[in-house]
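Exam revision sheet. Question 4 asks you to relate a sequence to its structure. Input first:
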Amino acid sequence: MLPVGTLGVGQVLKQFRLAAGLTQEQLAERAGLSHRSISDLERGISRAPHKDTLALLASALQLSERDRAALDDTVRRLRHDTLKQQITERAAPGLPAAPTLLIGREHEEAAITHLLRAEARLVTLTGPAGIGKTRLALQVAGDLDDTFADGIVFVALATLRDPERVPIAIAEALRLREGGSQSLREILGAHLRDKQLLLVLDNCEQVLAAAPLVAQLLADCAQLKVLATSRASLRIRGECEFAVPPLDLPEADQVLTREDLGRFAAVALFVQRVRDHQPTFVVSQTQAPIVAAICQRLDGIPLAIELAAARIKLLPPRALLQRLAPRLPLLTGGARDLPVRQQTMRDAIGWSYDLLDAAEQRLFRRLAVFEGGWTLEAAAAVCAEPEGAESGMLDGLTSLVEKNLARQTDLEGEPRFHMLELIREYGTERLAASADAEMIAARFAGYILALAEQAEPGLRGEAQSVWLARLTQEYGNIRSVLRWARDGAEVEVGLRLAGALWLFWYARGQLSEGRRWLSELLARDAGVAPPAARAKALLGASVLAAEQGDYDAATPLADGSLALFQALGDTRGSSSALSVRGNVAKYQGDYAQAVAAHEACLSLRRALGDPGGIAAALNNLGIIASEQGDYARAEALYKESLTIKRTLGDARGVANSLMNLGDAARHQGNAEHARQLADESLALFTELDDKRGMATALNNLGVVARDLGDHPQAVAASEQSLELFRQLGSKWGIALTLTHLGDSACDLGDAALARARYMESLALYQAERNTLGTIECLEGLASVVWLEGAPERAACLYGATAARRAAGATPLPPADRARLDQRLAEVRVALGVAAFTAAFAAGGVMTLEQAAASVGL
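Answer key, structure tokens:
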């Protein structure tokens, strides 16, 4: 990129034109513009070209992305400087000149201006520290300069603490003097009675007791209007409160490009303030998500963004982001012409904290423990005095909301509250320095643990979606307690909490996170936690490990869980550990051990009289029967399981059984019935928002569509399934769906795509030591090498997979057997009977690892 520095648009354009070896006439012709337009731009007569003109010039000059950005930024800087000059020139008499261009407040500016031009007599801009209330008020007042015949008067109240001094401040701004027998209030009323005037009262929060004076002036002076800024409303009749929101931010998980950033006001403000310090600053594509993350971490609060941007001289964006945890220590060094309270973010928030009474300060500190927000019930349990008294803290919470130190949202009729993270960080500092810190942390952990243990049985039943939603809502708080337990040696609390949550992690697909918490907490347990808590945590860890295909980890975890449950005489826990052990054995192709474990599990559950557990065990035995080719037994087991689930009203269980029955129907050649059952199960899983169930049902729909010759539908369903399994992090599901996508690619004759799909799947299956999955992949790859013109290698692979199926008693279903027999016949014809027989026999003595190596893994 050419060194543009602070050059004008014309100078930059000329440099680019000369570098391209073009005359003005040639550039005009290429861009479809007149020679006069180019000349005027380069001579500075036309200073800020339209964006369409800019795009034509950039294309004509064949600018790189970086040079195009430099030209755009030069124009943007020029427009900013021009607007800034215009703002200074049009500042209304009686108003302080705005030092900077207002960015990202167009909607709020228009709405407030409309209110004051219409019927509103008093508009109060409210919001937390640093949100930009004063700057917005100045902008609105400037917009209204021609509306009030007697002008606009700005009254700064930030330095006052005594409400009795407010009339003095207003009088001084109006240049009135007290004298005679009239009081100052009477003088103000008499002076303003016939005036068409806008009174701007800035920073009212520490003199709210003066609100009756404002009410009296409005009552006595019919043409007077007031625009106030305050961290809390004035609470007088006729007041129109306008809550100033944070600047627009991208979502935390939103993927952003450089071009996307301009849509978000918070990012635009950050970039502009950085350019105030470094005029040549340009956001690159790699920096775009970093800049977005900086603004997210600053809650979209303008003052925080400006303080962070001032650090750019020393800290480039990535380094700045890394140092914003915690945030407050870095957010210092504001402009010297700002009030002291706005030169650091901590002081800005501290200004609000100091205005609270002792009880409100105590409640504010305690509420800061909630990392993910809170309900009234939670606040009462954790923060109230005495503990559990909800009514005693309602007034305090109302005050914190009114003073913009807490925020309220309405969630299906139940109020929920939270703090902006910068404010909560200040609160946690105050809490840590107080005598309450340990007591509040223990109360908070106890509340969250009780909630998780209450939710645990609900996660298995019809109310699963309700409890998933509730725990998701509280997940910020849950993570906070897990960290506290792990780092503070509160292992028992941590293991009990994680043990109650493993099904939540499983259902939400947060497998890696769940395994990490369980592993860290189990590692920190040196025999302190009760055996029951450790057994449950081991069980959860084994389930999550198995779901991710880590059978080497899952097996000892399940065995350890089983041993503890048996020692405790916990039949229910033992049955669950046996179920996991049986599933792991099945995945690894050890069907004898899998059947033994599941039958032992079924026996224990029958003894317990646990119908839900019986249904699950029957379903697991049905899956094993199906994989071993006993489809009639599988169907009978599935139907018995389905009957129990329908009786229990277990919608999720019904969906699973329907899906498995569809699989049995497909294996027996009834593809239409299989599709109907898969559709039913998908509808139920979708209604339940069960992504794992949806992914599996879509996979089955793809397989059935392939059987019916509907290849577009087969590919579409399998790709949807793959996307969901990737979101869930389920290696087994990813491998399964990739295999079926490879099958479809083979059917369509696309050997290259089929090979890529199978090879990715094979790597996952081998890492999991999933025998049946590996066999299915190798059968697919045999078809690939046949399509690639290597019939002898294909015959060898087919021999290897046939031998492994025979050894493991896992025959192909009839629906798939017909396809394989057709392909074997094609290979036999191509090679001749003798050569085919020899290659097939050679494959029969290969291990699965040798067979995989032969296709390039």
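Marking note for examiners. The radius of gyration is 35 Å.
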